[in-house]
Amino acid sequence: MNLEKIPQLKHTNSNNFFLLAGPCAIEGEDMALRIAEKVVSITDKLEIPYIFKGSFRKANRSRIDSFTGIGDEKALKILRKVSETFKVPTVTDIHEASDAALAAEYVDVLQIPAFLVRQTDLVVAAAETGKVVNLKKGQFMSPESMQHAVKKVTDSGNNQVCITDRGTMFGYQDMIVDFRGIPTMKQYAPVILDVTHSLQQPNQSVGVTGGRPEMISTIARAGIATGANGLFIETHFDPANAKSDGANMLDLANLEKLLTDLTAIRKTINQL
């Protein structure tokens, strides 16, 4: 993947890690713009290449009454407005092959969810749009097996592909990050560490996914130290009341300190 080919991506020559960050789901225009404005301000100061993240629809829900979205077209138009307002690229996840062409009209990066990364039709449909394809490693997959998912994209004529590690299932209700997977998967494509989803505690008996946000800094620091090309962080100004994944999200008020620390670590790594 060539970062310089992503439209409107800034600071690509800073030799810093790149960042995908934003709310789990688009809940409305005001909240999306508020989060984007804050993250853009921080990443411009720290010279971090930044892609705004927001799901236009949530398909993987624990319960039938869980929040899934505000409407596909409405949410996608908000993603476009974020991009136009702040001159940054955007990423959203897709769940069906028919979503690929729809979302590609509005965003710059198409993300394949971890639980769908083996779905060939979905991966190929995303690749054929010509957009950057972000493949999330399945929680049930080894790092080595991700080479085949990458090959589906490149065999479809698209070399703009990256891999995101979001942890591996550990028992029924917890995730672990095996940092050995980062250098392994970097053999196939640039690797992003999904810090916040790696701290989920899924399959809770109450039907709402839990999490350990107090460990965000620990996992993020380890990711940069072990060579991750980028980080994925879901953030919100009111995680307790976020409509999706609030239990593992980073409070937006804590983002600048975290990214400042991570940038310092990255500079040290670059000097080794």
Automatic annotation (TrEMBL):
Membrane-traversing stretches: none
Any GO BP annotation: lipopolysaccharide biosynthetic process
Coiled coil: none
Domain DAHP synthetase I/KDSA as annotated: residue spans: 13-264
Natural source organism: Rasiella rasia
Keywords assigned by UniProt, alphabetized: Cytoplasm, Transferase
Name by which UniProt lists this protein: 3-deoxy-8-phosphooctulonate synthase
NCBIfam families the UniProt entry points to: KDO8P_synth, PRK05198.1
Taxonomic lineage: Bacteria, Pseudomonadati, Bacteroidota, Flavobacteriia, Flavobacteriales
GO CC terms: cytoplasm
Molecular function terms, GO-annotated: 3-deoxy-8-phosphooctulonate synthase activity
Matches recorded under PANTHER family: PHOSPHO-2-DEHYDRO-3-DEOXYHEPTONATE ALDOLASE
A Pfam family this chain is assigned to: DAHP_synth_1
